[in-house]
Design a protein that fits this description.
By secondary structure, the protein is an alpha+beta fold. It is 64% helix and 8% strand. The chain is built from ten helices and six strands; from the N terminus they run ααβααββααβααββαα. β5 and β6 form a beta hairpin. α3 crosses α5, α4 packs antiparallel against α5 and α8 runs antiparallel to α9. It starts with a helix and ends in a 13-residue tail after the last helix. The N terminus is likely disordered.
């Protein structure tokens, strides 16, 4: 189909304008995936950061481990890229709707004098988009705020998880060291009793008792060693390192005494401090804007336009057009109902999270009291038990004490020491859980927060 010269001459400017708009569009660029599966094997590979708390060695304290987790954890990196999506959605929400440009061309099919090709050009705009633009932008801003707070909460949880794994790993090492010392004694005792039995100086009962104790203790050590390996692998994975890397840990700080009054104050401030609760608030505020937008959209949508045309008789006309939808059957009532129901769901989710957190804090505070009582009791009776073991050992070596009685007494001493380590670990885990629930920052020795 040919466009006649008069049409091209009169309307060449809009065509040029349209071409210039198209030339300013973003172009597509491919970005291939990275198939490299290599993971960092040493912490020195992370020293590109300016954070002075990143150590160049693998002898790390809890704060340094938390720092590396924040820098290098793969899930956190992914979460940060997801934040870009929310920010891009905000950019999109801020943009106003584009006007609509229309054009038509009609060529007469009947012969007659004076007939020419007809054409028309029009420009229209949806006025309703201007009315809802402000609430749309506010909703998107709250969504970005929510995404940032959710990222902060995930970072917060990653730090607390690193503290948990750090504590568990160190506690497991303490247990292994305790049992390793006992294992040497058990091995020496079994070797002596076996030799004595071969010489006719010991009974089968004594040798079997020593061997049973040695086997039981070896099994316990193997079990804890397996758990410790899994804990180390989980810690390396959390730090974004090769899971085969073994991280050497420095001793953690001892747990601080619980301050019930301070915890109650922190609990009251919880709605204004904890990132996940603030994220739920931001999500609720975003939904409020969506409800407002849905209410605005129930009003008739108005589209106003201007057109310039020429008919087949070469008569030029200018005109205005307006279209309006009639809210007779729909009226956006379904969308309004959905948005209000979603808002109520978010309101209940926030209320449930807040009350659940309060109960969890109270339960942890009660559990902490029970753990302290157990630890106090153990610390009271363990020295007495140790004294009995020390007194019974010479009698057992001289054959004046039944082997089973002594082994049971010694085994009780070892197991109670393990129990004390377990309680100390649970108290520290209780402290971490309270810090997490009450949004209490993790501080290193220099007082810096994490």
């Amino acid at each position: 189909m040919k466009i006649n010269r008069p049409f091209a001459k009169k309307h060449g400017l809009p065509i040029v304008f349209l071409v210039s708009l198209l030339s300013g569009c973003t172009t597509y660029q491919a970005k291939p995936l990275n198939d490299d599966i290599t993971l960092p094997q040493v912490v020195t590979l992370l020293k590109g950061s300016d954070d002075k708390n990143v150590s160049s060695s693998l002898n790390l304290d809890a704060y340094q481990v938390a720092t590396i987790v924040l820098l290098n954890n793969r899930d956190l990196k992914l979460k940060r890229t997801q934040l870009y999506v929310s920010e891009a959605q905000l950019i999109n929400a801020k943009l106003f709707a584009d006007p609509q440009l229309s054009a038509n061309f009609d060529q007469p099919t009947s012969s007659g004098s004076g007939l020419v090709n007809a054409w028309g050009v029009g420009l229209s705009y949806d006025v309703m988009s201007l009315l809802t633009h402000n609430t749309q932008v506010k909703s998107a801003k709250y969504q970005v705020k929510q995404a940032k707070l959710e990222l902060e909460w995930q970072e917060w949880q990653a730090v607390q998880q690193s503290r948990i794994l750090f504590l568990k790993s160190f506690s497991e090492l303490q247990k292994l060291n305790l049992l390793a010392d006992s294992l040497k004694l058990y091995q020496q005792r079994y070797q002596r009793s076996e030799k004595a039995m071969n010489q006719g100086n010991a009974t089968l009962e004594t040798v079997s008792t020593d061997l049973t104790s040695l086997v039981d203790l070896t099994s316990q050590i193997n079990q804890i060693s397996q758990i410790h390996t899994q804990t180390q692998q989980a810690l390396s994975e959390l730090m974004g390192l090769d899971s085969r890397i073994i991280v050497n840990l420095t001793p953690p700080n001892s747990s601080k005494p619980i301050d019930l009054q301070a915890l109650e104050v922190a609990l009251k401030k919880l709605p204004s401090k904890r990132p996940d609760l603030l994220a739920l608030k931001a999500g609720y505020q975003s939904q409020e804007m969506k409800v407002s937008q849905a209410v605005l959209n129930q009003f008739p949508s108005i589209n106003i336009g201007f057109n310039h045309a020429s008919d087949t008789g070469s008569v030029l006309t200018n005109g205005l057009s307006m279209s309006i939808n009639l809210p007779i059957f729909n009226g956006n009532k379904g969308v309004i109902a959905q948005q209000r129901a979603t808002r109520e769901q978010l309101r209940m989710a926030y209320d449930n999270r807040l009350k659940q957190s309060a109960n969890q804090v109270h339960n942890l505070m009660k559990k902490r009291g029970l753990l302290n009582k157990r630890l106090t009791s153990l610390n009271l009776y363990l020295p007495k038990l140790q004294t009995l073991v020390n007194q019974a050992k010479p009698a057992y070596n001289d054959g004046n004490l039944d082997a089973l009685v002594y082994i049971n007494l010694e085994n009780s001493w070892i197991q109670k020491q393990l129990e004390r380590l377990n309680i100390q670990e649970q108290i520290s885990l209780n402290e971490i859980a309270l810090d997490t629930l009450l949004a209490i920052p993790f501080k290193n020795t220099s007082g810096e927060n994490k």
